[in-house]
């Protein structure tokens, strides 16, 4: 097996190098220096401890210098150059942490125990569970600082992984490649879908107090008896943190959650949570989706109970209470008999109202069923799709062929179809392709063709069933594009490619391949990177979306 090496990079970055044939398993840790005033040097600075090497289980005092990709804090012991990645640590913060894992001597992972001194951009997190559930890792970091760090992460990844010239990425000229990040207007209540899990035991995060420091180190969490409905504790598939309200979902969705919480543990109802170890119990998940009535613009809420078997009589008391909320127009029951933790059922039943809700995006109407994929932040998706449209730059005369790779339910391709000659979409999930056809028909679009196929397994015949595209849109999932698809793109040589990415690390890698080639595979790059526009879709999380325009040289 080929060796994996970790190489220090400029700006506090770490890069894990893997053999090319393992590129889909790339681990990228990109850290950026915080934009804070430089502290005044101490009168007697501590000597550098270049030889410092932490021990597992050791409690250390750290200073967080930057944020790494995926939201971990890049921390160091004073006077040392050794990097410890700590979840929940924020730039400028001084903290106490416990060393958990050593990564081949190159860096370590630590668990945050206690804040000794707050960071530069500290704000009070409105959610009391923000530090515990893991859904909003940076809620206590001012939003302006959040997007600043996200922008810098994208920049450093493009330089160190994409091998792009930093002078061309950022300059004062209009043709600078890296554009300012597009912020999110609404930083709370922006999610149109939340999925909560039922659990057999309630997971409680203990407060770490100075007088109980040793106890806190040895026993960071406490599991107490009692049913729970909420979000999984970070790192655990079987531990559920009880959630009464969530600041990310809509207010009508919060009303639904409150009604369910008030009623489902009533012993007279006979409802039990599913035990993932014993494989017994009834309730598995509660999914709440929010859409809009296309005629009135008022919210529409779908409630989906995922259960281990079909017993509608058990659910009806909950349904009766939920449907008193005027925004609730649909109650669904997905039945999942498998022992797995998925929320997708083998059978689906409508217990109340209609089987789907609707939403508007870029002037089009979309039907959303219980298991449909749809952009989770509707308002910011509208902004994202406008950025994509501008990057695609259709002439508008109906002469161009658009190829939409990883098209999902067809949302991007359908928003472009009315200005294109024809849109061809490819997606591996058959249910998503079925929804794409429904959405095209719903909006009266007849110049869009959607095909089910795995873009990671394309062969020599791929591309023969459609004309040569003028514009290719690629919106892959987090692992990025397979080398087979990279090779095909370099061979077909479409005039423009718009790469939409939810993972800037694999995005930078793929941009490097398309622009600079892959020497080990005897592939020559033939594209020039014209622009990269980061878009913040999910405030208080480490996730970043990027829209990248490439033009054929």
Automatic annotation (TrEMBL):
CDD domains: AdoMet_MTases. The active site is at residue 502. Residues 53-112 form the TRAM domain. GO terms for biological process: RNA methylation; RNA processing. Gene3D superfamilies: 2.40.50.1070, Nucleic acid-binding proteins (2.40.50.140), Vaccinia Virus protein VP39 (3.40.50.150). One of its GO terms (molecular function) is RNA methyltransferase activity. InterPro entries: MeTrfase_TrmA_CS, NA-bd_OB-fold, SAM-dependent_MTases_sf, TRAM_dom, U5_MeTrfase_fam. S-adenosyl-L-methionine binds at residues 375, 406, 427, 475. Keywords: Methyltransferase, S-adenosyl-L-methionine, Transferase. It comes from the Eukaryota. Belongs to the class I-like SAM-binding methyltransferase superfamily. RNA M5U methyltransferase family. This is TRAM domain-containing protein. It comes from Paspalum notatum var. saurae. The lineage of its organism: Eukaryota, Viridiplantae, Streptophyta, Embryophyta, Tracheophyta.
